[in-house]
Amino acid sequence: MTTISSLFKILSCRDHVDYVLVVIVISSVLWYFWLYSKSKRQSPPLPPGPWGLPIVGHLPFLKPELHTYFQGLSKKHGPIFKLWFGSKLAIVVTSSEVACEILRTNDAIFANHDVPAVALVNSYGGIDIAWTPYGPRLLMLRKLCVNRVLSNARMEKSVDLRRGETRRTVRYLADLARAGSPVDLGEQIFLMILNVVTQMLWGATVKNEDRELVGAEFSGIIQGMVDLLLEPNISDFFPVLSRFDLQGLVKRMGGLAQRMDRLFDRVISQRLGMDKGSEGKGEDFLEVLLKIKNEDDEKTNLNMNDVKALLMDMVLGGTDTSVHVIEFAMAELLNNPDIMKRAQQELDEVVGKDKIVEESHIPKLPYILAIMKETLRLHTVGPLLNPHRPSQTTVVSGFTIPKDSKIFINVWAIHRNPDVWENPLEFDPSRFLDQSYDFNGNDFNYIPFGSGRRICVGMAMGERVVLYNIATLLHSFDWRHPQGERLKIEEKFGITLKLKKSTCYDPSTKVG
Ligand code: HEM
Question: Which family does it belong to (predicted)?
Fold first, then answer.
């Protein structure tokens, strides 16, 4: 009672009424700010996305050609949308602006990859470049590879190893051409690139008589690993189940990884057994990596498993990608004889009709470079990059992207955006002749090698190998479809995009 009566007393006094009004106004303002800051503190929503089923989420609805499937969904759900793969949240990005927010503005946060269960097995526990999370160790490994193993200077020293392999394939194709036999070019390109890559890895180490044997064993293991990396794995969608390896994929990868490890041991012991005088002559990658391992440098500090994991990266990263770029380029050229003729004219002018192509000619072949760029635009062999993973929850384009979600950047769809590319489905290398796009990932409308901290470390080697081999195939032969038909160029989605059906070609020899 006393309180109420004193309140009345206060209110009855005019000074006190003013006082109360001031308190009410201040409280209202404070309350408003509290509400405002509370609403600010609530995180923005997750990106939109289609409905999924309980537990399995969107898994039952996925289509094998993920790149085209995601492109279709983006038309309905926008440039950034979400899907649940079991308990894993996937975020799909389909615009260069959002890709830039992820790969440039927030690059340090998103510069990690989501390691599939099987990849842990064939990468010595994820210690290689592709799976090491962003941090000092990754920076050290990448620097070492870019500056010392895959650098342009190092490439120069291994020119002879690459030339030998490519010329060997040309001689074989020339024999087939003379006999009038059509060529399964996909198979030949695979063997040629595999040999080129292995020559660079240990070509100066493995003796001639052992080469075929190592090559055959190696090729079988690589194919098996690529297939396993592609297989959808329950352990990745429900990590709590991973220890059961319900599909036995980890076990199968373990078998292949053991075979590969034995093969690495065999090659390494050959190199270690070589007499001191032969060191440095061949300049293969193995020799360089072993030298780095033996250096007394605290910052580098590689052990033998690190060396093997890096060799694995180069094999897996270097083979499939380059093979498919060359295969797509040749298929498009077969369908576009005018473009093939223009490329051959450039080669005849720069190289000469009766000479053979050398890597030193490459900087003088802008049209061949434009063919490679256009092939990588239209048939982006790394269509979704290697999915990135944020190390912390982040806001992108007004949406919350939770820590550890799986980020797919649909570069394939970005490269076909009609607002940027005129007639995007047409194969037209001349759009690259003005040099406005390069491979460095600075313009997010064109990022075939990725961009930022996780951009491909083998870009210099990939560019060289692809250009040199396309140039050699076009300069040495005229190519035709055996039945003279137009090819149906269909893509097959995988860790790398490839031609659905390998095609037969009719080569006729220009120079032997
Ligand atoms: C034309 C040929 C090639 C293309 C189109 C290509 C494309 C790519 C792409 C798109 C990525 C993923 C970037 C990302 O996740 O953001 C990548 C990563 C990588 N590439 Fe390549 N690549 C090629 C050749 C090579 C070669 C020749 C090697 C090695 C000898 C190589 C080794 C790697 C490695 C180790 C990574 C992982 C980098 C990391 O995660 O930090 N690539 N490449």
Answer: Belongs to the cytochrome P450 family.
